[in-house]
Amino acid sequence: MRDDDLVIMGYVRGAFGVRGWVKIHADTEYADSLFDYATWWLGRDSDWKPYRFENGQLQPKALSAKLEGVDDRDAAEAMRGCQIAIPRSEFPEPEEGEFYWTDLIGLEVFNLDGVRLGKVGELMETGANDVLVVVDGPTRRLLPFVDAVVKSVDLDAGRITADWGLDY
User: Fold this and answer.
1) What contacts 26, CB < 8 A, 6 or more positions away?
2) CA-CA distance, 83 to 70, in Å (whole number)?
3) Ribosome maturation factor RimM PRC barrel domain: which residues (predicted)?
4) C-alpha distances out from residue 64 to 105, 112, 125, 126, Å
5) Which end of the chain is more exposed for a tag (fewer CB within 10 A), N or C?
């Protein structure tokens, strides 16, 4: 599996119990949405291996999951720190006007005057709304991802148009 086909969805925090279950930190909107995928790709440093998802539980502060072939605590603990990825092609299509964060990262951001503000380096969740972190060299701009600011997103052109000034 190529890295550019995979989207990191979380990582293994360690073993959970003695029967091969792993404790998971999910970087998804809904933690248990990882359970929707039959095969998880786990790896470090671009060395990926597929694991079949067998079972999972939502815990108070994490997820726990049983993966095929991981049958004891030692095998589960050996996975600590592995990233969990899912092929982008397996994601459901987003609703109209909705976007996966992974699709927004790297897009060029321009203001209404056509001035380049930078590239989306990451997104943050603030509770009130998501925020685009737009990076232009040493300059970082935080743009709320709301209709009043983000006027258009063109994934095909790799461009976001925002109502935002250079001096904001």
Assistant:
1) 9, 10, 32, 33, 34, 63, 84
2) 16
3) 101-164
4) 29, 46, 24, 26
5) C
What whole-number distance in Å separates Cα of residue 113 and Cα of residue 164? 9
CATH of the domain at 81: 2.40.30.60
Distance CA 122, CA 142 (A): 10
Strands 159-162, 108-111: pairing is parallel
**What is the reported pTM?**
0.77
Question: How many Cα atoms are found within 13 Å in the side-chain-facing hemisphere of 97?
Answer: 5
- In the chain, which stretches have pLDDT less than 70? 1-3
**Final residue in a domain of this structure, among 90, 121, 141:** 90
pLDDT at 5: 86
pLDDT of residue 114: 96
List the Cα angle 87/44/53 in 5-degree steps: 50
pLDDT at residue number 28: 85
